[in-house]
Please model this.
Amino acid sequence: MCRSIKTLRPPVTPEVSDDDIRAAALQYVRKVSGFRAPAAHNREVFEHAVDAVAAATEELLNGLQIRGTAARQR
Model:
């Protein structure tokens, strides 16, 4: 779906920053909404969606159990 989003799961990407997570969330929301940048009247809901997707992504990455490694602690 979002080909420009890189895999953030360890060990594929061992060090994932908050910026990496936010960039992936932004790409996802852009793709789903169809807007590269929201109009002024949609900016708040767009940013809320990016924040929500970033939080869900961080929760997912923190909870993943990869064979041979412990769950990530951030």
